[in-house]
């Protein structure tokens, strides 16, 4: 029986190992082997011919785009190829490897997750090199979430890593770290990372790397292990960037938001998600302290609180309603996202416990949130400049410019706060005019009930947060 030409197939499908694996599984007859070999030879011949016909400068740009671009054209990284990043990550000393982790995004397969000083990447047991398209720099990770997997009898959890420029619903992928689109510096991966862990502890032999022994102490469960290891790398990345506040792992919390819909598979546990459609895709909304996440299908969407302009409702029916979120995508532009078929039972929790809590229904408050965000962005830019600016006068000039920007934005923030204080004062005056002593009992009763419901919730990620600080100096 003839053999597959793995060399040519590997060159053609180097960025799609899932297709390559599918070909290997389907090549169960000589006819199919010959067919796959002929396809690989033809495609490789066409690619070579196209590259030879183009000018050198044009060829170089196309090569970079092919290795670093995304199917949606979201992130383009000039000057760094996927192969370069893979080689750089592979050359670093392995700090920790967690074997047999179920990854869903970018590719659905079990991989070994590897953590080094500058990278997190996936690889297989058969190949020590990182999988192309599954290498992320720690400096490029902007948000990390720890969320329960909905509708599972056995409790499982998802970790979501969002690099810059991959989660806002816009073609130019604005980042929350600046007014202009920002791109991962040299990461080969332009998609988020999503992997699932069970509630159990890792099996013996599941850990490897320089700090495997220390990690084993923290490995009472997969979540305690990840919550021990990942924050250390995020803190180190923040230090390299000159940031005072590292990226945190944000967990869902029933005290923050809990669904009113009872879970049939785990009735004693409050759900922290709401079923919702985005277009024809079904998914789940998570209302978190930093924003609203929709998952877990591609493309993942995260709407930071400081990017939300307003929240409104449409198609309010007896059983369902739709929620429309207007988002600031930068450069004065906004986009609206509609999430449909939300259960009517969750309307009160979403509207009162979340939307009104953060004043997301009030467009006038969006300016205050924007001013706070820009002030924080300037502080981050100033910190990054201080870390990199050791060139004397240039560093001083950058600091003065950052200070000027900070003064400007502080003025905007103070103005917004004064306007909000005036609005609240006006509302208090109106309440005093409309005061009705006969309504006190009902109001107090409702407030007490709401507080009691909040107190019933378990602290979603409190225990895990305590694990973050253990062994910080090990890496």
TrEMBL record:
Pfam families: Rttp106-like_middle (PF08512). Residues 390-407, 426-475 have a biased composition (Acidic residues). Gene3D superfamilies: Pleckstrin-homology domain (PH domain)/Phosphotyrosine-binding domain (PTB). GO terms for molecular function: histone binding; nucleosome binding. Residues 365-475 are annotated as: Disordered. It comes from the Eukaryota. PANTHER family: FACT COMPLEX SUBUNIT SSRP1, HISTONE CHAPERONE RTT106. Histones H3 and H4 chaperone involved in the nucleosome formation and heterochromatin silencing. Required for the deposition of H3K56ac-carrying H3-H4 complex onto newly-replicated DNA. Plays a role in the transcriptional regulation of the cell-cycle dependent histone genes by creating a repressive structure at the core histone gene promoter. This is Histone chaperone RTT106/FACT complex subunit SPT16-like middle domain-containing protein. It comes from Pyricularia oryzae.
């Amino acid at each position: 029986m003839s053999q597959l030409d793995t060399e040519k197939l590997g060159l053609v499908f180097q960025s799609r190992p899932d297709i390559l694996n599918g070909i290997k599984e389907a090549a169960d007859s000589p006819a199919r082997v010959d067919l796959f070999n002929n396809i690989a030879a033809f495609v490789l011949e066409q690619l070579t011919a196209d590259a030879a016909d183009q000018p050198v400068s044009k060829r170089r740009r196309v090569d970079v785009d092919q290795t670093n671009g995304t199917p949606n054209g979201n992130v383009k990284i000039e000057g760094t190829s996927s192969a370069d990043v893979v080689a750089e990550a592979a050359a670093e000393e392995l700090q920790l490897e967690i074997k047999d982790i179920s990854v869903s995004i970018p590719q659905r397969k079990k991989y070994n997750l590897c953590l080094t000083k500058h990278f997190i990447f996936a690889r297989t047991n058969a190949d020590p090199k990182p999988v192309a398209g599954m290498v992320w720099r720690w400096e490029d990770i902007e948000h990390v979430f720890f969320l329960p997997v909905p509708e599972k009898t056995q409790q499982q959890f998802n970790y979501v890593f969002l690099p810059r420029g991959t989660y806002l619903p816009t073609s130019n992928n604005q980042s929350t770290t600046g007014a202009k689109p920002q791109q991962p510096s040299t990461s080969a991966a332009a998609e988020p990372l999503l992997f699932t862990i069970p509630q159990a502890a890792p099996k013996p032999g599941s850990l490897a790397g320089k700090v495997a022994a220390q990690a084993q102490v923290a490995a009472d469960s997969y979540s305690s292990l990840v919550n021990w290891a990942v924050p250390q790398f995020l803190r180190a990345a923040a230090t390299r960037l000159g940031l005072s506040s590292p990226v945190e792992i944000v967990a869902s919390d029933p005290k923050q938001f809990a669904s009113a819909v009872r879970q049939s598979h785990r009735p004693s546990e409050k759900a922290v998600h709401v079923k919702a459609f985005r277009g024809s895709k079904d998914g789940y909304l998570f209302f978190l302290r930093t924003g609203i996440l929709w998952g877990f299908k591609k493309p993942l969407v995260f709407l930071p609180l400081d990017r939300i302009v307003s929240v409104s409702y449409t198609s309010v029916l007896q059983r369902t309603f739709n929620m429309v979120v207007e988002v600031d995508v930068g450069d004065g532009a906004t986009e609206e996202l509609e999430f449909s078929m939300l259960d009517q039972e969750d309307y009160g929790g979403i509207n009162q416990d979340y939307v009104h809590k953060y004043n997301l229904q009030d467009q006038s408050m969006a300016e205050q949130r924007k001013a706070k965000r820009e002030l924080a962005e300037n502080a981050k830019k100033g910190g990054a400049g201080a870390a990199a600016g050791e060139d004397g006068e240039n560093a001083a000039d950058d600091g003065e410019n950052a200070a000027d920007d900070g003064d400007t934005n502080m003025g905007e923030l103070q103005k917004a706060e004064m306007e909000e204080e005036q609005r609240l004062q006006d509302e208090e005056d109106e309440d005093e005019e409309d005061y009705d002593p006969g309504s006190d009992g009902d109001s107090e009763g409702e407030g007490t009930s709401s507080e009691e419901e909040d107190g019933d919730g378990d602290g979603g990620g409190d225990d895990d947060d305590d694990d973050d600080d253990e062994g910080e100096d090990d890496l």
